[in-house]
């Protein structure tokens, strides 16, 4: 198994779950990881995009998990060239070489492929209509990955969290509240937050059962960022009075955000016999983990 982006939240968590079942090789950029040197390849995807193709040809892995994406939706709105390279061109070349060597490619995508105007959870059959450039590039990559080889998999996910130093939203809330600082999460942006440990287990099941196609891979709870922050504060025993709800009008972001992009993961759950956590179960999981593991 080759994991592209081994030091990130998803990649490093997947290493822990996959190490006993697979010969795992990972790519990293600037952030080091605790893994044997012969299992790690340093690649700057932006500066050396074709090096990942060379690596795939060299290793010929059974499975490739591409977790690489730019974390800033706003930067993608400003820098289309960078977004195109990382989200579209590199996955395209990866898909081609995967087909050549017989590797199965599992590509991550996003709930931002939808415009957020539906009052129900989106299924895989709903028509995408991204409102920002980040979502547009991820949608283009989806089509490329699935059209290049029918055995590939695309997983749409959202607001991934865990007990991890790269869990952006939950770390911001927990750390700020511990330091008695005010936080201002949006009250009018709804998603289905996803426990990273669930994603790691799902990937292993997908590899074992050899399913293919497009799936939603998200938690069960459709909640706002403000409500997510409230659950975190409650479970970690922190002051909820420090959480100030704001609207998208009050706290503007450069790139437009869809208001409600909750996804329905039942198709994937049925396909691999798996249950994603709801937000209470997921946050309870990371709270328990915080008691036994240091970040």
Descriptive report:
The chain is α/β, with parallel strands linked by helices and 295 residues long. The strands form three sheets. The chain has a seven-stranded parallel sheet, sandwiched between helices. The model has no long low-confidence stretch (mean pLDDT 95). It is 41% helix and 13% strand. The two termini are 25 Å apart. The radius of gyration is 18 Å and the shape is globular. The protein has one domain (2-168, 193-220, 263-278): Rossmann fold. The chain has helices spanning 9-18, 51-59, 73-78, 80-101, 133-148, 168-178, 196-209, 225-236, 266-272, 279-292, and strands at residues 2-4, 25-28, 40-42, 63-66, 104-110, 153-157, 160-161, 190-191, 194-195, 213-216, 223-224.
Bulk shape: globular
The CATH fourth-level homologous superfamily: NAD(P)-binding Rossmann-like Domain
Give the strand order, joined by hyphens, for the main sheet: 3-2-1-4-5-6-10
- CATH topology title: Rossmann fold
Indicate the radius of gyration in whole angstroms: 18 Å
Low-confidence stretches: none
Q: Terminal Cα separation, in Å?
A: 25 Å
Which strand-content bin applies to the residues?
5-15%
Q: If classified by CATH, what would the architecture be?
A: 3-Layer(aba) Sandwich
CATH class: Alpha Beta
- The topology string of helices and strands comes to EHEEHEHHEHEEHEEHEEHHH
Largest sheet: 7 strands, parallel
Overall structural class, as computed from helix and strand content, comes to alpha/beta
| Mean pLDDT across residues | 95
Helix content: 40-55%
Q: How many strand segments?
A: 11
